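Progress report, Aim 2. The chain analyzed during this reporting quarter is listed below.
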Amino acid sequence: MTLEQAERPQRHATYDVFETRIGWVAVVGSAEGVSRTSLPEPSREQALGAVASAIDGAVLNPDALAPVRDLIVRYCAGERIDLSSVNVDLKGASTFFTKAWQACKSIPAGETRTYAWLAESAGSPAAARGAGQAMARNPVPLLVPCHRVVGSDGGLHGFGGTVGLPLKQRLLAMEASARSAAR
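Predicted structure tokens for the chain:
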């Protein structure tokens, strides 16, 4: 199965779009798990646009995704929420991308790792650029927290959504604050 085929809606796919404290988020899922999410976006339309290819044929059903909605809303409100427990459906991706996304899920909230670390953790130490591509093509941001991956100099590089790097910076600051408050 190609990545393009995996991005097509699955039978019984449902979606939800909702407002959080830091923007609108769209989520697409099925019995296999969450297959697409948007980053927090300034408008409902932008959030839906980020997942448009995945919602073609899907049914709007907030109840089906209510547990995921609750966790994301609480996370975006600054609570210390572990989103790595949400079941994600990443089938159709390459082995390297899947390993990179799994490694990314292991980065604790409020901490960062480099693309080189991510490549090494995915079993390909020389593939830092490939790790960057895996993060750029991450279909479930927040659930696979690509905002926690930084350049070798510790700088913030490349981030999706319409807000871009300011959102990456905000998410990292929010997580650091929640982590400090929990101590």
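Residues 1-10 have pLDDT under 50 and may be disordered. Strands lie at 14-20, 23-30, 33-37, 59-60, 113-114, 149-150. These observations will guide the mutagenesis work planned for the next reporting period.
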